[in-house]
Amino acid sequence: MVVDEIVARLDWGKSPLMPAIVQDSSSKEVLMLAFMDKQALTLTLESGYMHYFSRSKNRIWKKGERSGHTQKVESIALDCDNDALLFIITQVGAACHTGHKSCFFTTLDSSSTILESQTSPESTFLTALKSSPLESTFAPSSPNDPSQVYGIQAYDIMDTLYHTLLERKGAPESSSYTASLYAKGVNGFGKKIIEEAGEVVLALKDKDSAQIVYECADLLYHILVGLAYYNIHPEQVLAELQRRFGLSGLEEKAQRKA
């Protein structure tokens, strides 16, 4: 069956996004649930590697495109209503962004009480963010190795932090600094953004490179708090910058007025 025929067989009338259940070919463990649009499914079928549509990033992405934790398709099954897919895959590395092998690492009982939440040796950054003050959480593991923080490559930090902030939104106010910001609402973390922006300006005036980087990290963190509050993935901001690339400032402003 050719790719176009497979895509056409699915019932896209209910939703433009198709649930995709992912199962490990060796352990049979369910690793994750994600979503595909027609293009993501086509790319998956053509390449043999899992592609998804990210609702938070608002774009198609190949699993492992940055981390290297790819998923090679071994077989595909379609459910009885033609509106869900089961992929049997070979997983390289971890399936979950937290570093866990599976995204389903938290066990609940019938009353939705957390009975067990497994820890992962690859989730040191998340543990640090939960238990440490802001200053120590963002301290580099080595001053000579700014590309890696707590074992997570720098290009993954933004995504990891964003998902961690999402978790904090529903946490008790006393559980973390981030949770206390969310408890205060927009006015609370908004004031912190203004305050940290002022600290960046002072660092720039002092011409202190290390302090500029430090204060920018604080400012970026609080901006991410605001983005996560409205479920806006930081990659959407990067996409907007990419859209503006090559435009003059005057052209960009003219487009906004239009």
From TrEMBL:
A single BP term in Gene Ontology: L-histidine biosynthetic process
Region feature Phosphoribosyl-ATP pyrophosphohydrolase, mapped onto this chain: 158-258
Swiss-Prot/TrEMBL keywords: Amino-acid biosynthesis, ATP-binding, Cytoplasm, Histidine biosynthesis, Hydrolase, Multifunctional enzyme, Nucleotide-binding
Gene3D superfamilies, per database record: MazG-like (1.10.287.1080), Phosphoribosyl-AMP cyclohydrolase (3.10.20.810)
Annotated segments matching region Phosphoribosyl-AMP cyclohydrolase: 1-157
Organism superkingdom: Bacteria
InterPro entries: His_synth_HisIE (IPR023019), HisE (IPR008179), PRA-CH (IPR026660), PRib-ATP_PPHydrolase-like (IPR021130), PRib_AMP_CycHydrolase_dom (IPR002496), PRib_AMP_CycHydrolase_sf (IPR038019)
Biochemical pathway: Amino-acid biosynthesis; L-histidine biosynthesis; L-histidine from 5-phospho-alpha-D-ribose 1-diphosphate: step 2/9; Amino-acid biosynthesis; L-histidine biosynthesis; L-histidine from 5-phospho-alpha-D-ribose 1-diphosphate: step 3/9
GO molecular function: ATP binding; phosphoribosyl-AMP cyclohydrolase activity; phosphoribosyl-ATP diphosphatase activity
SUPFAM superfamilies recorded: all-alpha NTP pyrophosphatases (SSF101386), HisI-like (SSF141734)
Residue ranges of every copy of the Phosphoribosyl-AMP cyclohydrolase domain listed in the record: 32-105
Catalytic reaction(s) noted: 1-(5-phospho-beta-D-ribosyl)-5'-AMP + H2O = 1-(5-phospho-beta-D-ribosyl)-5-[(5-phospho-beta-D-ribosylamino)methylideneamino]imidazole-4-carboxamide; 1-(5-phospho-beta-D-ribosyl)-ATP + H2O = 1-(5-phospho-beta-D-ribosyl)-5'-AMP + diphosphate + H(+)
GO cellular component, one term: cytoplasm
EC number(s) per entry: 3.5.4.19, 3.6.1.31
Enzyme class: hydrolase
Compartments in which it is found: Cytoplasm
Family: In the C-terminal section; belongs to the PRA-PH family.
NCBIfam families: histidine_hisI (TIGR03188), PRK00051.1 (NF000768), PRK00400.1-3 (NF001611), PRK02759.1 (NF002747)
Name by which UniProt lists this protein: Histidine biosynthesis bifunctional protein HisIE
Gene label: hisI
